[in-house]
Specification:
4 strands, two-stranded antiparallel ribbon, 240 residues, alpha+beta, single chain, globular
Length: 240
């Protein structure tokens, strides 16, 4: 997901193809083209916690989503404290929280004071202002991922929830309007697979078997046609 924020997207809006550059994506709606030329507007949205887009945009502006290699991040003998790594990444004059905050404000912008405080609280929760040692990796993105793996790991008994809704607003030939909705809700099992692993992994596994058995061609496919979708819908034991 962290890499996806730099991708350029194209989608249909009121019958026209619209494009959003990756650098502007996190501050815009995140729609996606779905190969339905009859549809005038197609939007795929993701629910996030309040402040998520602003936090990710600031991480991007800070350079912490960069895959560029830096020697100062690789040292296994004397790993840098996080505040020093943040200071070097920002080219801050010091690693004090006050100077880091000033450097962040120089690199990015905030809509208002409340959003600034919320983002800074998020950065503080991640650990970017403290002297805990980084996990040495080649790039800023990799050391950020390493600390997020620790901060966001499930605790004992925790589980994830996947919720999905499709809503279609239909206009028939006779002018009649209709709304159709389908929904999915699934919980992970703390003693087994997460809901995300199950709902992503099983379809991928089925698709791999289809390719290996010659039922699907070896090329990039999207699940928009019956020959791709029907085998996924017919999987038994998905809830086991």
């Amino acid at each position: 997901m962290l890499l996806a924020v730099e991708n350029t997207v194209k989608f249909y809006e009121t019958g026209n193809v619209k494009e959003i550059p990756g650098k502007q994506l996190i501050t815009s709606a995140r729609p996606e083209k779905y190969s339905i030329p009859e549809a005038q507007t197609i939007i795929r949205g993701t629910l996030r916690y309040q402040g998520f887009p602003e936090l990710i945009r600031v991480l991007l502006d800070m350079g912490l989503l960069s895959q560029e290699s830096h020697d100062f991040l690789k040292s296994f003998s004397t790993p840098l404290p996080w505040d020093e790594a943040t200071a070097k990444t920002l080219e801050s004059s010091s690693s004090s929280e006050q100077d880091l905050t000033w450097a962040i404000s120089f690199k990015t912008s905030f809509k208002d004071t409340d959003k600034k405080h919320r983002v800074l609280a998020g950065l503080r929760w991640i650990g970017l202002f403290f002297d805990d040692a980084i996990t040495p990796r080649s790039s800023a993105l990799n050391i950020l991922c390493a600390i997020l793996e620790k901060r966001m790991a499930y605790e004992e008994g925790e589980r994830d929830l996947v919720s999905l809704q499709h809503k279609f607003e239909i206009e028939h030939v006779d002018g009649k309007h209709e709304t159709q909705t389908s929904a999915l809700c699934d919980y992970g099992d703390p003693k087994s697979y997460s809901a995300m692993a199950k709902l992503v992994g099983i379809p991928c596994g089925v698709a791999v078997m289809q390719v290996l058995e010659g039922e699907l061609p070896k090329e990039l496919l999207a699940p928009y046609s019956p020959e791709v979708c029907d085998p996924l819908r017919g999987v038994e034991g998905v809830g086991d």
